Here is the input.
Amino acid sequence: MKPVAIVGIDCRFPGAPDAGAYWDMLMRSGDGVDKVPGQRWNAREFHSPTGEDGHSNTTEGGFISDPDAFDNEFFTVSPREAAAMDPQQRLLLQCAWRAVEDSGVAPQRLAGTDTGVFVGIMGNEWAQLHMTDYARVTAQLGSGNGYCMTANRISYHLDLKGPSLAVDTACSSSLVAVHLACNALLAEECDTAIAAGVNVALTPALGIFYTQAGLSSPDGRCKPFSADADGIGRGEGVGAVVLRRLEDAIADGQQVYAVIRGTAVNQDGRSNGITAPNRWSQQEVVAAAYRRAGVEPSEVAFTEAHGTGTVLGDMIEVKALGHLHSGRSGRPMAIGSVKGNIGHAEGAAGIAGLIKVALSLHHKVVPASRFAAKENPALKLAKQGLRLLKAPLRLRSGPTIGGLSSFGMGGTNAHALLESAPAHAVRPEAGDPESGHTDSGAAGLGTGVFTLTAPSLEALRRNLLVQADAVQRRRTPVGPLCWSSNRAKTGHRHRFALPAADTGELAAGLREAAADDDLLARLSDRPAGKPRVALLFTGQGSQYPAMTARLYRQSPLYRRFLDEADTALAPHTGGSVREKLLSGDEAVHRTGWTQPALFAVEYALAASLTELGVRPALLLGHSVGEYAAAVLAGVFPLQDAARLITARGALMEELPEGGGMLAVRAPLTELTELVDTEPLVGVGAVNGPQATVLSGDLAALERIEDELRGRGVKTRRLEVSHAFHSPLMTPMLDRFAALADEIGGGVPTLPVYSTLRGRLLEAEPMDAKYWTEHISAPVLFGDAMTRLLEAGPTHLVEVGPRPVLTRMARTLRTVAGEGVHTVAPVPDEEADGRAFAEAVAALFRGGVDPNWDKAYPEEERVAQRLVPYAFSDTQRFWTRTPVRAVAPADLGVVTDDAAHTVRPYAQKQSAASGHGAVRTAVLPSAGEDQAADPVARAVIEAVAEVGGYAPDEVSALSLLYEDLGFDSVMVMELKDRIQERLSGLEEISVQDLLPRLSSVGDLVGYLQDRTDSAVA
Here is the structure.
């Protein structure tokens, strides 16, 4: 059998709410067994020390805390549906989600893949309680119960397309599910598999059965292989593992807990009783697993035994293992069983054992077996080549193999062999040729960006605090933590991103954001739709000595592309632009250096952004800024652009001095007459309705300035060396045109809003004619920017050494430009890698999904396990009253005090209060006008009824599918309830409603057009 990697784990067991707590409990030999919670059944009424008919001999067992808690809003499940669902489905949904996150993958990224789901489950007591009152059976109860739905529910909510099945082989169910998952992976039915097990004890029925069969321990505790072993103690819990073929896990850089080397499943067949264990079948299933794994018994260091703690069961299991291990002279195999800690978890027993073995191999230590101090001498363990773990077993360095047995009450047996993960799979090394993370060039922003997403601000705040606590305890460098968060903590509507230099700063920043509403609002966003990014390339005048020098030194990514531009420019400049920038040379103010330097900076910034996955939808360059934009748009290659821009700057610098530029606070129409009187003056730029720049001879500009001041018009001289975009540029045009003809230029492959034409270029080449005209023609920035805003960008990203164009764009915004975000990767002269990281963070918050691998150097792209998603526990769904004792003959009929049936109910509580405290509206509440309108009121009441919401939890803004969890069955019921409430409404069909069901408001508007009646 080819190896299968365990890459993700999550679980909840008695006394252990998560995998970390589970391991801690095992290492301290903790006990999760306690009294039967009052929430389940009245244990005293079902208890008899002698175990007489209809009673159990114990009032204790292993129970998980808060099994009624379910974050239905996270999964967009309506309260009504959540209340009808078997709590095992709810627990599995949350556990599977967290296990996938633990594997380093955002669960949404599995959507549409062939990921398989394999669930082991033994009981379905929720259905026994709720499906026998036929008058109260609903569609939600139907889909909320059934073994198949435990697996299908996970596949549905995660949109997984691979095999999806539940298996019931009694106590071996979840290990058999793992066996099936491994086989599906090796048969290439799926590339990822979620294998899980679940058990929730809702009634005393199975405990009564164990008692009547002579299998139940009076104190409710399993005591595996102990002299005090006296039967089974019930336990419950949920666990899930994410499995990959080992080669795939390594290729994707996933951390591996342990490797499954081989599994086997068989059956007892006809033995001395259908519930009695069969030694020969047990030893054969173990031997079969060894053969499949290619392992000799002497190589197995320890085995997590089935270990129920029954006298007969322990004896048969020891003899079965002894058949294979009795010849181990001096090196007995260690055995133990987690059932001593949590009880017999039935359908979840196998996954509990698997997780224990995987964590033992991962931590290189096997916990002691609880109740091992008084070993049962009748087992003669030493003779069988076995020893009971009375203290933790430290595992040797290097490969170690552990076994795991799980035997079903009906005779279906399973065994698995696990091995410690290869060293390079425990902590994958960045740049490993097998890891899939190698680069052809340098990467890294210089500062990591920690990301987190959640479906609501409340959920975001809760998870920020959880992550802050976890980060504070980490000693890992912040880069790998940030990179791991980018991979696993994404996909929800509310997006949070925070640059951080170290873990201390990160933890403090997370806490600060969680505590400050204003800061949280600044650091998070909920994008309304797909982002459309416009890159704006700044023009001449924005330069300064040492521009982007700090960014160059800190960001390998930016450094790579500035070096590339410098290499292209050097043959034509006669020197290095890069060296002038790094040295702070004032020569960057000389036109011959200014234009190549600006081009290099803007090309490097734009190339860095595109390398990071920021795909521009729109481009605009102000004057000389159009050269870098043209390279990005594929007009000509970098080398040709470098040659042309260098010639442009050099030819301009050769022109005589004496020209200047004048910014005027007035529209062009008021200046045309003055310009026409001065042949050596032209319009240099029109940046907006009240922002015109004149360019030309200094003396002529002075005459115009005097006239304008006399009229009370504000003017400002610009610090320039020449009169750009004016008639004074004419002497250089022929020489430039000759070079431009040689270089040429094509049609942009991206939308370019030309500041030469003042509009979008429509399949027009940016050729020699274009670039020659570009020199002396006015810059029509105002017109071009207005057209660009009308195209609906979500972000304006200024690609230049300082934000100039975004500021000018603010004066041009009309209704079309409202809500546009501005981003500056280089916000000021002190900008560094952190400023660039903040720009990327802002884009992520706005809906852009960067290629995060490029944001980090290779050595930081190492997977780290982050704390999985923290679900809300304020929503409670359970039976209205606990089960009460009835006559044995009527055991299937369960009553409560109110309605002679046990019904599911939904309850919400505040985070700070106990059960029963009702939380206020989850969604925006209905407004007064809405409530007064009879159609709106009828729709809201119907929606609330069908979904199980309070009316004030539904508003016109509520989305029926995304917010309220409606499906086709609920839509049919909604139609009928609306029809009942609106007497004047003509008959409508589901087909009529479907196109109008985006939001409650859309539905109200549609129905208002169909009726003017009052509520029936």
